[in-house]
């Protein structure tokens, strides 16, 4: 058996049914404003609708009328974890959202110094917006419908009650009350009833995890060779940024740890989903830098290694120069060749 076929997946050209023909044609077709608008107008319209929906829900008062205990019979506070002082958040939500967008955006634009690809720029930025907007709407729905008491709830509520009123509420032994006993600012009370999940954490992880996935795809950090250490640091730097943004919420007493964890899970979920929605793979280093086709999308992406000649990676190592790319056991385990033989298509998979 040919040794090169055992150890290396060699790029092959097929003639009449070359699976990259449609991709090449779409890449070479000049992208006019009319073509761009025709292709993506619905995405931008839906992003605008989702953004408006998210903002509308964000400004709605919390849906549930939560009840909570204040004092025990002996006058002790029932839940001191809701009794932290009210103070301004260290990183406002607008700043967290801005950092979650601008940091990945800067890296995307820096990569274009080498890539110089409008297709990749558009794909990466739209994927970033998909991640941020979808995650934000997801979490504000939970905040509005579920919510929870923030660590500074009592400081914002300023309940008009004392130990002598014990037993005058609802529930077992009359110790439960609702927001009707609050005397604080209405806006602050509404906000202090919407603790779960953390919006800061959701935005930070949705944007900065997406940034790490993009850097991995372009720089081939987890690939078929050992890169320099700075690439590993660069991959984890956005993740550290997301953790730091989220962790400040425990210092200014805006969220409990479980609110932050829930936001991080939501943000990470949408970062992974949005990246795979836009690119051919997440972890398969051979394809995770290639934007999925939108023009001529009926043909899909066939995971043929010939595509690597037309989609530039920002890495020059690991076989990207000499056109010899080793296999990887992730999204695509083989290279697909479509060979025309006697009028029928034969699928040939070489591992």
UniProtKB/TrEMBL annotation:
Keyword Phosphoprotein: no
Principal location class: membrane
UniProt-annotated location(s): Membrane
Database matches in Pfam families: PAP2
GO terms of molecular function: phosphatidate phosphatase activity
GO biological process: phospholipid dephosphorylation; phospholipid metabolic process
Keywords of the record: Membrane, Transmembrane, Transmembrane helix
Keyword Transmembrane recorded: yes
CDD domains in UniProt: PAP2_containing_1_like
Span of domain Phosphatidic acid phosphatase type 2/haloperoxidase: 123-275
Membrane topology: Multi-pass membrane protein
Family classification: Belongs to the PA-phosphatase related phosphoesterase family.
PANTHER family with a match to the protein in the record: LIPID PHOSPHATE PHOSPHATASE, PHOSPHATIDIC ACID PHOSPHATASE BETA
Protein's recorded name: Phosphatidic acid phosphatase type 2/haloperoxidase domain-containing protein
Source species: Adineta steineri
Species classification: Eukaryota, Metazoa, Spiralia, Gnathifera, Rotifera
